[in-house]
Amino acid sequence: MEHAEEHEACLEQTQRYYVERPIYNQELLQGQLHRRERTPQTLRQKIAHSCRCSSKKAKSHLYSFLPILKWLPRYPVKEYLLGDIISGISTGVMQLPQGLAYALLAAVPPVFGLYSSFYPVFLYTFFGTSKHISIGTFAVISMMVGGVAVRQVPDEMISVGYNSTNVTESLDYYDARYTKRVQVAVTLAFLSGIIQLCLGLLRFGFVAIYLTEPLVRGFTTAAAVHVFTSQLKYLLGVKTNRYSGPLSVVYSIAAVLSKITTTNIAALIVGLTCIVLLLIGKEINLRFKKKLPVPIPMEIIVVIIGTGVSAGMNLNESYAVDIVGNIPQGLRAPAVPEIQLIPEIFVDALAIAIVGFSMAVSMAKIFALKHGYTTDGNQELIALGICNFVGSFFQCFSITCSMSRSLVQESTGGKTQVAGALSSIMVLLVLVAVGYLFEPLPQTVLAAIVMVNLKGMFKQFGDVAHLWRTSKIELAIWVVAFVASLFLGLDYGLLTAVAFAMITVIYRTQRPQYRILGQIPDTDIYCDVEEYEEVKEYPGLKIFQANTSLYFANSESYASTLKKKTGMDPCAILAARKKAQKRHAREIKAANELRKKATNDLEASVKHEIANDELPVNGKFASADASSVQDMSPDEHEHFVDPKPNIHSLILDFTPVNFVDSVGAKMLKSIIKEYKEVGVSVCIASCSGPVMNELTRLKFFDNTVTRELLFHSIHDAVLACQVR
């Protein structure tokens, strides 16, 4: 009782509106509206306008291309500088060990990870629009680069390589295999940078939307498995070949297991100790996040401890533990990448360019939304393209945004891109001054850092349970992305996942939800009759809605479901009518023959009765028999009920329809004509302006199908159908 009273009180407080207006169809509505006059521009005028330059336009383009010119003059030093310094130092401390570690994933010497942690990070300060993401080496991209490098230069390849002197002139301290892999990695960065730069200049930032979140998360989870398996040999200290391509995970695990008896115990102990320390440090940072002024830089602490222990105990010579090795001081002179490699690695570069951009722009959007500023997807493409393109001349491999470092940069008080610049300067100091100190660092320590940083990606396995409850289709995308990337390799896996995601879009448009709508009494609101008890249908009126556009892939489904949902098939009714008419004709013919026969019998009977003086009796009988046939009307001869529709009007709700193609328009026209033949008028309600323009271009309207069939809303159409 109390609930009912509260409900009534709520209804009384609800705002109401009353509108009195004509019933609008599109013909009437367009007659009362006046279109704005627009002079269409020719192609020449459009080109001339786009090429026209003014000081204001030039300044706008310059600020767009170099965002630093816009935000740096307004930089509030007192408010932001301290936070950016702390954030830059904290991020730089993470950049160092991750740069060294991810170089192993990219199949290049560790120093190239430091190069990739300096040049691109510094360049992003000038061209990037996100204030919080940390550009540099990232596990997934590094793994993709390493896969291509190993495919092009497998472990078995002898020291006869590409004829080149550009990048390799002074790499005497590296063997030929690493030299060639560096060439591949650098050229890959060069090409992926060009692709990103071209896509950005052509305003193709929207390509990232095709990498939906479940696809990216499934792909990165598979990449985490790839990364983890690739680091097992470093953790165990065993010597195995590195594999790439389909089933590389299986081959890598099999190779490690086949050499498990040769495990270097010293390397394993050092690696496991580092893993434990890193996990403890991450747990402390997570639990005491609010109390700690800055996160404990456990990675650099582990690197320092590992380097000290390795140097003090001489692990390399005494226990045969693999170490980082020679780290040359200073920066290398710029060199041109190996252009002749481009045809062999183009598809891989395209995949790396798109995945790298997708990672960066997704993190940029998260931070922009959180802190209330905007990022430009096209400018992010340009920024990443410049970072990769220019970085390739300085021996950098492909880079993107790192999720873990970005979170540290934001959580430690970073306000602008200055924090990223400071982190790159820290890497520069190491390269110029103290890089040689890290030469004794065991590779198993770097493997431990990589493995622990995969913890967040492995948590994405929890997506399976979540997506199972929320969306089976998105779960299918996640699973396909994961399985394909795991077993086919990251390149083919990504292509497979994107293709499958496209197929799901087609599947959804071909399998939309169809509804019959009814009215909520005394309102102009129409809802699904099967979902709400209060919703009622008008007698003789059906309102049909499909939550999809109308085009070649679903037009047949639309028409067949319409007939099924309304319970009336015009073709079946017309066929029944034709069949009934034929039967009627046959029965009329039979009735005529019966009448003729009865007349003949009557005449013969009359003659016979006259002769026998029995006219009254038999005459009455014969007369009655004849009259019973002659008095039958055509309707009484029919033994069927003429099939007639139980509805007089059909309304198609076009609210969810975004576009109609030529196949959809023809199908729609045939629906209107078919139902008209059986006495049912068809109306279209809530048709948007762009859809109506498309119908006009497709010559949908003619003498039989006019704009009077289109109504502004469902309620307009319902009222008009009731008047008819």
Polypeptide structure, described:
The chain has two domains: 411 residues, no CATH class; 137 residues, 2-Layer Sandwich (Transcription Regulator spoIIAA), CATH 3.30.750.24. 62% of the residues lie in helices and 5% in strands. The chain is built from 31 helices and eight strands. The strands form two sheets. Strands 4-3-5-6-7-8 form a six-stranded mixed beta sheet. It is elongated. It comes from Merops nubicus. One of its GO terms (molecular function) is secondary active sulfate transmembrane transporter activity. Keywords: Membrane, Transmembrane, Transmembrane helix. It is found in: Membrane.
Span between N and C termini?
44 Å
Mean pLDDT figure: 83
Number of DSSP helical runs: 31
Helix content: 55-70%
Number of domains: 2
The coarse silhouette is elongated
> Which strand-content bin applies to the residues?
under 5%
Q: What is the tally of beta strands?
A: 8
For the sheet with most strands, the description reads: 6 strands, mixed
Strand-pairing-aware structural class = mainly alpha
The stretches of 5 or more residues where confidence is low (pLDDT under 50) are 158-174, 613-642
Identify the strand order in the major beta sheet.
Answer: 4-3-5-6-7-8
> What's the Cα radius of gyration?
39 Å
For this entry, give a set of tags:
Prestin; membrane; elongated; mainly alpha; STAS_dom; 2 domains; 724 residues; SLC26A/SulP_dom; two-stranded antiparallel sheet
